[in-house]
Specification:
CATH class: Alpha Beta
CATH superfamily: Ribonuclease H-like superfamily/Ribonuclease H
Number of helices: 12
Strand content: 5-15%
Number of strands: 5
Distance between the termini: 28 Å
Strand order of the largest sheet: 3-2-1-4-5
CATH architecture: 2-Layer Sandwich
CATH topology: Nucleotidyltransferase, domain 5
Length: 261
């Protein structure tokens, strides 16, 4: 089994960056800085979704699956700052060279990681290899790397299922629920900034972890559909996921399992 890393990020407005770009006073409260940016964005484009480079990462949640383990973990505040979170994520790719799997990772998560990693001086040579460097197996990366849209070393499951047509994109929450999986529990991306302001970073982390497990479950169904897994292997993998989550015993996994039909 090749190692696989399924990932999802949660972000908040980069308040420090917004202050710098708009020359705002240091004593202006964070919520007012963000609201000013939202208002300017709405006036410019009709919505308050800030550009990727102004999205500060507070959590990266991951599923790591290889021949020996299924593991769910998070790189998150307050245990690490943004630079450390991003560097540790890319360090994992450097060490294991996994297939990375996302839902809309090409449209959101990875561009944010690129910009924020650039700002912090993060290094990620394995991730950026495209068959031109001196790293191990470099030639393989010419034909299958993390960067090219149609390569599988990064699989953006949403993008592939929609056949690269944005109008055919499906929301993870609804697709997961249609398959009998839990979908989103208790929060969505629009609520993260408010939760962060209230100091509920653990709730953000828990939400991100359930999202990444939903992504993994949809990926397993995709592997069944394309014949990579037999029905028996698929059922066995679902059993592994259930048993690991039950063993963790945290409240968000208890809620997740209770919603899993």
């Amino acid at each position: 089994m090749i190692p696989r890393l399924i990932f999802d990020i949660e972000t908040i407005p980069d308040v420090a960056g917004l202050r710098r770009l708009h020359d705002l006073p240091a004593d202006l409260p964070d919520d007012e800085v963000a609201e000013l940016a939202f208002q300017r964005r709405r006036a410019a484009v009709g919505n308050d979704f800030l550009p990727h480079y102004l999205q500060r990462i507070v959590t990266i949640s991951c599923v790591f699956r290889d021949a020996t383990q299924f593991r769910v973990f998070s790189l998150s505040e307050p245990d690490a700052d943004e630079a450390q979170i991003i560097q540790r994520f890319f360090d994992g790719i450097e060490r294991f060279t996994p297939q990375i799997i996302s839902w809309n990772g090409g449209g959101f998560d990875l561009p944010v990681l690129h910009y924020r990693g650039l700002l912090h001086g993060v290094t990620a040579p394995r991730y950026w290899e495209m068959g031109e460097g001196d790293v191990r197996d470099a030639r393989d990366f010419k034909w299958n790397n993390y960067i090219s849209r149609y390569h599988s070393r990064h699989l953006d499951l949403m993008d592939l299922l929609a056949l690269y047509q944005p109008r055919a994109n499906a929301p993870l929450d609804e697709l997961a629920k249609l398959m009998g999986f839990p979908g989103k529990l208790g929060m969505d991306g629009s609520a993260v900034w408010g939760a962060y302001q209230d100091g509920r970073i653990e709730e953000i982390r828990d939400y991100c972890e359930t999202d990444v497990v939903n992504t993994y479950l949809v990926f397993l169904r995709f592997q069944l559909m394309r014949g990579v897994l037999t029905s028996e292997e698929y059922d066995e993998e679902l059993k592994v996921v259930r048993e690991v989550l039950e063993g963790i015993g945290a409240n968000h996994w208890k809620a997740f399992l209770s919603e899993w039909s």
